[in-house]
TrEMBL record:
Keywords from the named record: Chloroplast, Fatty acid biosynthesis, Fatty acid metabolism, Lipid biosynthesis, Lipid metabolism, Phosphopantetheine, Phosphoprotein, Plastid, Transit peptide
Family the UniProt entry places it in: Belongs to the acyl carrier protein (ACP) family.
Span of the signal peptide: none
Protein name: Acyl carrier protein
Pfam families (UniProt xref): PP-binding
Gene Ontology CC annotations of this record: chloroplast
GO molecular function: acyl carrier activity
Subcellular location, principal: plastid
Localization in the cell: Plastid, Chloroplast
Carrier domain: residues covered: 52-127
Length: 131
């Protein structure tokens, strides 16, 4: 049972192990108990660390690999999944980026790429590491 003391303290009768803190809910055990439901705030990127020309080239490669129509807007914040890419498409995008930028992307790094910015940031990091 959870109780709220004052305005900022939260105590538990039993130890609680948090597994996923993106969404947290305390349900009332009986009538009269309070209900607390926290929802995650969307993450917003403030700026892109990658060079503008890298981001532009990644956008071009993504549009080509996914055969997107010319009027489809692809920008740094574009998520591959929202552009219709499945896991195979993402692998092909990474392969196209490796070929164009003459880099090698480790599988663990490739799995963290979800947006154009993610890819551009990784590319700039790998290219700088080669120099």
């Amino acid at each position: 049972m959870a109780s709220i003391a004052g305005s900022s303290a939260l105590s538990f009768a039993r130890p609680v192990k948090a597994i996923n803190t993106n969404s947290l809910a305390f349900s009332p055990v009986r009538k009269g108990n309070t209900f607390l439901h926290l929802q995650p705030m969307p993450m917003r990127s403030v700026s892109c660390a990658a060079k503008k020309d890298t981001v532009d080239k990644v956008c071009e490669i993504v549009k080509k690999q996914l055969a997107l129509p010319d009027h489809t807007e692809v920008c740094g914040e574009s998520k591959f999944s929202e552009l219709g890419a499945d896991s195979l498409d993402t692998v092909e995008i990474v392969m196209g980026l490796e070929e164009h930028f003459d880099i090698s992307v480790e599988e663990s790094s490739a799995q963290t790429i979800a947006t154009v910015e993610d890819a551009a940031d990784l590319i700039d990091k790998l290219v700088a590491g080669k120099a």
